[in-house]
Amino acid sequence: MSDVATLGRRIRYFRNRAGLTLDEVGAKVGLSGSQLSIIENGKREPKLSLLTALAAALNVTVASLLETAPPDERAAKELELERAQSTSLYRSLGLPIIKPGKTMSDETLDAVLGLHRELVKREHQKIATPEEARRANTKLREHMRTLDNYRDDLEEVAQQLSDSVGHVSGALTHREVSLMAGTLGFTLVHVDDLPDSARSITDLANGRIYLPPASIPGGHGLRSMAIQAMAHRVLGHRVPHTYAEFLQQRLDINYVAAAVLMPRRQAVEFLTRAKNDRNIAVEDFRDAFGVTHEAAALRFTNLATRHLDLTVHFLRVGNDGAVYKAYENDGLRLPVDVTGSVEGQHVCRKWSARVALGRHNRTTEYYQYTDTPEGTFWESTQTGTGGGDDFSITVGVPFDSAKWFRGRDTTERKKSTCPDPTCCVIPDASLSAKWAGHAWTSARMHAHILSPLPSGTFPGVDDRDVFEFLERHN
Hints:
The chain is of the alpha+beta class. It has 19 helices and 9 strands.
């Protein structure tokens, strides 16, 4: 069904085509002209019975009124202007709303629309910066903390998608994902020429979702990519106007994908049994649903507080100790910069996340108790390699909650006094005395910090590459 604004435009179009006034049509359907005007302006959604009466009065079918496309080019432009002026970007300017009425010429409408499009384009160029990304990401992380990293609305969407293909237990198969796409009117197509800046591309005109080759290593990630692409459509996402909106959409689709691969009902049943057995283990959760260790750990944070009554923290840390992703609602003090951002900050060398990276044997889960100024935490860490760099994935809980987890009997224990710099930042005094002034290091340059993001419709995505790709496969 069309949205209310488009529906109103279509009613107006057919009324004008029939040469009828508001009052004349209103009299036929039992409305005043002013009430019908409200409907035509998209301020009120008519009931089906009224739609049927309007269709008869205008000598058209109900289906014609409900088509999703604007009735003509002028109506399409008027709708675009109304939507542009309803965005937070425009409202932040404090400018009045312009009504695209009959007295506005096509040239004026085109000029005003052109200004709006340029405004959005420049805003995209401005927001595709590290500073804006960090600010928006911090705000989003803090908001999710208030929700215990749990979104009931997205859980419902994911469970319905899972149930729609009859998935009962275990790992979601690639066939089930394809069937899921089919129920939404899409076909999954694997190609080897996706633009470097895109993980997937959805061709809305032809109902195709383009993904990397099915034979790539770690192909389980293709299921997640496909579900993320579907989630955009299921959640009704539109092109984001701010970086915060872009990040929110990314969080939403990642959440839905994880919740489809590890559906709430089945996942909670699995984790509840493990808790009752005092044998919760992320690696078991991972293997039961056929996902990556990181995906299982993040999904655990969604469910731990609301369904298992456990507060928890999660860390993905690079080999240099820098944080890539983090979440906590258990009181662990994460390292943050002056803006409150945790990404890129370095965790204490004595935390499990970094101790595990220094071990020679990385094939097994590493368990550790860590004493911190905020209390003692038990942690489980798994290491891995991605993109040529090592990283660690850590899930931890306060000391009193360790009794529910496998690995609670570990004898490994470290004491951290960070953010006190004497803990692990300042070099040992004897080493400083020996080497200070006698060493010169050529720093490793991270080239990506000098590279601006491509400024396309979506931050970081090159529009030209995407459109040329679609043209090749059309």
